[in-house]
Amino acid sequence: LEKTSVAAPPESQNFHWHGFTQMADFQNIVIDHAEGCWLTTTSGQRLFDGVASLWCNVHGHRHPKMDDAIRTQLDRVSHITTLGMSADITERLAERLAEVTPGDLKHVFFSSDGSSAVEAALKMALQYWHLKHSTTTPASEPSSTTSSTSTSKTRYLALSSAYHGDTTGAVSLGGIKYFHQLFAPIVFTPVRGPLPCSYRLPDGVRCDDACDFYAGKIESLLKQHHTELAAVVMEPLVQGAAGMITHPPGLLARVRELCDQCDVLLIVDEVATGFGRTGRMFACDHEGVTPDILCMGKGITGGYLPMAATIARPHVFEAFLGKSSERKQFYHGHTFGGNPLAAAAAMASLDLFRETNLTATIDAKSRFLRGCLAPLADHPHVGDVRGRGLMVGIELVADRESKTPFDSDQLIGRKVCERATELGVWIRPLGDVIVLMPPLVASDDELRFLAKTVTQAIEEVL
Ligand code: PLP
């Protein structure tokens, strides 16, 4: 690996507390700079960015067009509020997002991270039903008369092992035990749907019947709870943090139909899947689905600056319209939502998508990467290689036949990723699922290097 001479950082004193990280045995990797799909540490090691800087880098690091767009905006204004005004670039971005998102999704509410985009969606859905079911409060009445909700539709249906972020509402939806059980006193309880896993199907369910089976489960929950449900919230096609769990094809479209039949909103969380990751601009595009509300984040700015958004269809937005005295406005707003620098990055990223026709290249790249990973198919501890587009999970198991997981204390996934890092690829596991989420511009040579290195790391550890 090419080395460059960069001064080593001082011994860590844990001034920086890292998320989801046991700080007592943490070996930090400090990045000095990056270019394309490669990171260079302060000690000079070059690492391939195998998880696209936590699933968000699209066009590679330091892309000249991305950097220029941010610099140009810096010369105009770096931040102003969106409460009562906004930057020209933010206005233009909202319109572009309406163009690239599915169907008639149109009205963009900006925030700064994926979790906040989900929070906004939850509150939007709840206030939507409140507004639909309440009679207008006359201006003469005190505002306190409108403060409690007038609808019974105040709950959400979320899938098992769901992950929608780390803020309180998002954690409430979450179904990953360690992420939410501790926080039970401050979270709400959703109606819990199934985990529509294609790899571990329940006894007696064949692959071809999986969509019907899981749709049936969701249908019975919707029939039972629709009067109290504001929305179904789901990650489309692939549940990322659950371990790249792939849903049976067609499930998303079935859930859309069921939501329509039961008069429940559909909120789709495309924070991880959005912006080309699965081979379409949005995962919903694979199944021709337009949710009522769609959440996006991560890749929105090409992975350059924090930004997220919640986009709603006209019928949702229009429920919030009225006279000021009716107090129908959306009671939510973020200081940095729609930040102009981030908006400039997002516009440049969308320009690059258009100029390079990037989304159309993903299916071929995905096939190429899967081809490079093919030798793993015979490995006795590789249970499944799955995902969509450039969103890939390799599940390592103790026993391939019975699909029995390793004992979690063995930290197999972590050991494989640590070895891959020594070999020049930065990846981060989800338990014993090895996640490959390279920047979408990764070349065939880079994808081959990624696959070869990860295969070697798995073979050396197992
Ligand atoms: N939703 C999904 C599907 C995600 O994968 C994530 C993050 O991984 C989030 C929401 C939360 O996004 P953020 O970390 O930007 O808050």
UniProtKB/TrEMBL annotation:
Pathway: Cofactor biosynthesis; biotin biosynthesis; 7,8-diaminononanoate from 8-amino-7-oxononanoate (SAM route): step 1/1
Spans traversing the lipid bilayer: none
Reactions that this protein is recorded to catalyse: (8S)-8-amino-7-oxononanoate + S-adenosyl-L-methionine = S-adenosyl-4-methylsulfanyl-2-oxobutanoate + (7R,8S)-7,8-diammoniononanoate
EC assignment: 2.6.1.62
Entries under InterPro entries matching the protein: Aminotrans_3 (IPR005814), Aminotrans_3_PPA_site (IPR049704), BioA (IPR005815), PyrdxlP-dep_Trfase (IPR015424), PyrdxlP-dep_Trfase_major (IPR015421), PyrdxlP-dep_Trfase_small (IPR015422)
Compartments (UniProt record): Cytoplasm
Chain positions with N6-(pyridoxal phosphate)lysine modification: 298
Site residues by UniProt (Participates in the substrate recognition with KAPA and in a stacking interaction with the adenine ring of SAM): 20
Top EC group: transferase
Keywords tagged on the record: Aminotransferase, Biotin biosynthesis, Cytoplasm, Pyridoxal phosphate, S-adenosyl-L-methionine, Transferase
Entry binding sites for pyridoxal 5'-phosphate: 114-115, 269, 334-335
Binding of substrate, residues: 163, 298, 333, 428
Entry superkingdom: Bacteria
Needed co-factor(s): pyridoxal 5'-phosphate
Subunit structure: Homodimer.
Alphabetical list of NCBIfam families matching this protein: bioA (TIGR00508)
Similarity field: Belongs to the class-III pyridoxal-phosphate-dependent aminotransferase family. BioA subfamily.
Role played: Catalyzes the transfer of the alpha-amino group from S-adenosyl-L-methionine (SAM) to 7-keto-8-aminopelargonic acid (KAPA) to form 7,8-diaminopelargonic acid (DAPA). It is the only aminotransferase known to utilize SAM as an amino donor.
Name the record gives this protein: Adenosylmethionine-8-amino-7-oxononanoate aminotransferase
Organism (species): Novipirellula caenicola
Originating gene: bioK
